[in-house]
Amino acid sequence: MANAGVVSAAGDAAPDAWKALVAHRIRSYATPGAPIPHMPEAPTSAALYRAMVRLTCPGPGSH
To answer: Can you give the three-state secondary structure of the chain, one letter per residue?
Structure first.
């Protein structure tokens, strides 16, 4: 459900944002000494801004 929220909120403004959530989850389950996957690059500031605008200004047909 958390990942669905990230995908829904980020939409096409930051389509790979979900990868950071998944990476954080995988890292949180790692045992001491286990190899930890790298974190993907964060969305750009512009992409995050577009995602926030998308959330506050729904498009036509929204209720």
So the answer is: CHHHHHHHHHHHHCCCCHHHHHHHHHHHHCCCCCCCCCCCCCCCHHHHHHHHHHHHCCCCCCC
Supply the pTM of this predicted model: 0.62
Span 38-61, pLDDT tens digits: 888 888 899 888 888 887 876 665
Backbone angles phi, psi at 62, to 5 degrees: -80, 155
For 15, phi and psi rounded to 5 degrees? -65, -20
- Note every long-range contact of 34-39, with CB atoms under 8 Å and residues 24 or more positions apart, other chains counting: none
